[in-house]
Amino acid sequence: MKRLVFSLLAGLFSIALTAQNNPEAYSFTPFKMLTATPVKDQQQTGTCWAFSSASFLESELIRTGKGQVNLSEMYIVRHVYRQKCENYVRRQGQTRFSEGGLAHDLINAAREYGVVPEEVYPGRKDSSKPFNHGPLEKSLKNLCDKLIDEGKAGTLKANWTADIDKALDAEFGPVPTQFSVGGTQFTPLSYLEFLGLNLDDYVTITSFTHHPYYKPFVLEIPDNFAHGSFYNLPLNELMRSLTFSLQTGYTVTWDADVSNEGFSAQNGLAIVPQKDWSAKSTAEQNATFKYWEPEKDVNQEYRQQMFDRQITQDDHLMHVVGILDEVHSGVYYVVKNSWGEISDLKGYVYVSEDYMRLNTISFTVNKNALPPDVRKRLGFEPGEVKIEKQMGPGAIPPKTDPADMQPAGRVRTNPAAGRTPTTAPTAPKKVSKKE
């Protein structure tokens, strides 16, 4: 018996050595791919929230039969900058002022101001020059600080917001009040009505333990200047909702942390390597993103700790448009970025399930695309659903496997190889990235 055990251990050790000496490349098979509009480049701006959310609405228009529509991100950005300025002045500077934002900012602005095509409002005077909102952010803040001082001194004029509009018009151009599409005259609001988008259908879901599950709450992240509400789900249900939405034909806006060694837009891959970056040799670091390696299992406790330690933060929004099956480890998600057509994937990134579980701040989804039981638990439709006892803080929720979604007879080459639970999290090093 001892000899048999020794032989088995020796065999496993031999397999491990073979895997190390003969690394295998990632191998992806499309499972579900949804239609998206062409990749854009936000350039030197922090407006990923507008690009990702506009792309999301464009896919919604494709899904509902309106065809490909190229929405103007800068029309929305211009209105949201004005909202931020007014909010900053009225709060006497005691709030965040930056280029960043969230998906609900675009949805809220579209609800109030409508939408326009890109060709109607490109949002820059010289199309030969790249977008660059750094100087604009600085000048707007200086203007708002001046308005605050005038307010405290009792000298603020009644139409003080006109100064903000003047500064925004100088950067973006005056907003259109009427325009023509296909020979029909529209206002921004009538164009939104024509497109048939019901903006009340869109909700934002997340998963954190410091608020009750199945209830809305205001998530404490800096870019939530509008104090938008997020619906809280257990992590496994959050991931199930993402997969269910994509399977049923609905894309998703993704707010995430990408400032870590596991995200590489240049290589088109996002992973959570089981081996920490600092523990890797130079050769292993160079091989990251080139050859498959096992990942950490991410549970609810680990996710919460990384958020509370301010390691997992919201610094980029993108658009999730598909599901892949990776031969070694299962589900990956196809993500459309807004940094131009970089990498061999032309601006797309393949994101592992573990990366999603750890680094997701939130998803913005069409509430009709959520699983029926989740819709009932969140109160979006009538009916009661028994809420099962949640797993303990150290438990590993079950993972998604494309094999569960495909015809019988499919065999995984190396199912869940090398996975180990993450119960004692090691903080990954933060890496500064373009938003």
Helices and strands in order, then pairings?
Blueprint: H1 2-21, E1 28-33, H2 48-63, H3 73-90, H4 103-113, H5 134-153, H6 161-172, E2 179-181, E3 184-186, H7 188-195, E4 202-206, E5 216-218, E6 229-232, H8 235-247, E7 252-256, E8 263-264, E9 269-270, H9 282-287, E10 296-297, H10 300-308, E11 316-326, E12 330-336, E13 348-352, H11 353-359, E14 360-366, H12 372-377, E15 420-421
Parallel strand pairs: 4-6, 9-13, 10-15
Antiparallel strand pairs: 1-11, 2-3, 4-14, 5-6, 7-11, 7-14, 8-9, 11-12, 12-13
Helix pairs in contact: 2-4, 3-4, 3-5, 3-6, 5-6
Tell me the CATH superfamily. Answer: Cysteine proteinases
Helix content: 25-40%
Question: Which word captures the global form?
Answer: globular
Low-confidence stretches: 1-19, 388-397, 406-435
* Rounded mean pLDDT score: 87
β-strand amount: 15-25%
